[in-house]
Write a structure and sequence with these properties.
Order of helices and strands: HHHHHH
Radius of gyration: 16 Å
CATH class: Mainly Alpha
Shape: globular
Largest sheet: none
Number of helices: 6
Oligomer: single chain
Structural class: mainly alpha
């Protein structure tokens, strides 16, 4: 239950940051996708079901804020949360490179799905422009932020799991 509450708080804080403050520190006209990072990390650290739930909540928050269609982002984020949740049993939690790699793949998949569902189906066929000006800059910015966030999120879950250790070192 503590993990669930911590995840909900992380989602809400990330949503507030993504929709308010991060618009003032755009790089290349894009902001990092914090909700995707939280969805990927939740699935990677906690498993499939928490990944799906985090994806559902993140997707509905984005759909409510920006979406023309309610449920489109929720479906994409749930799928990303589920797929990253499958890696929970395969990979080692303390490895920093694997979750960052999963964020990169997930960001690329998210960008392609958004392109297909929102642009390609409306007859906008310029994938190269969208890939070079939206998907890749957002992917790079999201990767940089995910490197910083993974250790913090892992540290937070470690505090929740073992409160007697008082958090230990954040770098372990």
């Amino acid at each position: 239950m503590k993990r669930f509450i911590a995840t909900i708080l992380l989602i809400l804080i990330s949503f507030l940051l993504q929709t308010t403050i991060l618009h003032y520190i755009k790089l290349g006209g894009v902001i990092p996708n914090l909700l995707l990072i939280i969805t990927v990390f939740t699935g990677y650290i906690n498993g499939r079901t928490p990944g799906i739930v985090a994806g559902l909540i993140c997707g509905f928050l984005l759909d409510g804020q920006y979406g023309d269609l309610i449920g489109l982002n929720a479906l994409i984020y749930m799928t990303i949360g589920y797929i990253n949740g499958l890696s929970n049993r395969i990979f080692y939690r303390e490895d920093t490179m694997m979750p960052v790699f999963l964020v990169a793949i997930s960001e690329l998949v998210y960008g392609v799905f958004v392109y297909i569902l929102e642009f390609l189906l409306r007859g906008r066929l310029n994938l190269g422009f969208y890939l070079g000006n939206v998907i890749m800059p957002e992917l790079i910015y999201t990767l940089l932020v995910s490197i910083l966030l993974y250790k913090f999120i892992l540290w937070l879950y470690r505090i929740i799991e073992h409160p007697d250790k008082k958090g230990g070192s954040m770098l372990c």
